[in-house]
Design goal:
This protein has six helices and five strands, in the order βαβαβαβααβα. The chain has a five-stranded parallel sheet, with helices on both faces. The protein has a domain at 17-33 and 88-152: Rossmann fold (3-Layer(aba) Sandwich), CATH 3.40.50.620. The protein has 156 residues and is of the alpha/beta class. The radius of gyration is 16 Å and the shape is globular.
């Protein structure tokens, strides 16, 4: 029997991530698992001129974003009363950091939301969820947004 003792929930604070959080919390309650909340502050792309900053400005901006993200995750964790939660904020490429944290924390499952991008947006931007599914060291449960499901069914 598979045991889920550590569930990792990466979040970008979107509505879809919040829907996936509900699933992650429910699973953690059911299995008596710890819940690891993760947000990745995406590193800047130095090749794009609009993101060019002096190195000290860049470090300061990343630190500011990480501090804000930690505060947001702490608020989320405070609302979860029946599950022991742990908060992680990292910087880098989201899918790479999700995989690294899953390995480092020996997560038994990852629960994350999907954005439902299709076509050119999917090709150009890629799917963090898809990359995580392909490279994760543990099972991954993806949660589609209710809105994406309704739209695909022609309901909205």
């Amino acid at each position: 029997m598979i045991e889920f003792k550590k569930i990792l929930h990466p979040t970008d604070f979107s509505d879809n991530s919040n829907e996936a959080l509900e699933v992650a919390v429910g699973m953690a309650e059911k299995f008596g698992a710890g819940l690891f909340l993760l947000h990745v502050v995406e590193s800047f792309d130095y090749s794009l001129p609009e993101y060019y900053m002096a190195e000290d400005e860049l470090r300061s901006e990343i630190a500011r974003r990480m501090e804000g993200s930690r505060a947001e995750l702490e608020k989320m964790a405070a609302k979860i009363t029946n599950v022991k939660t742990h908060v992680f904020v990292e910087d880098g490429k989201p899918f790479m950091e999700i995989i690294r944290v899953a390995k480092d924390q020996e997560a038994d499952m990852i629960v994350l939301g999907t954005r439902g991008r299709t076509g050119l947006a999917h090709i150009l931007i890629g799917s963090t969820a898809e990359k995580v599914v392909r490279t994760a060291p543990c099972p991954v449960l993806t949660v589609r947004s209710k809105e994406d499901v309704r739209n695909e069914a022609g309901g909205g």
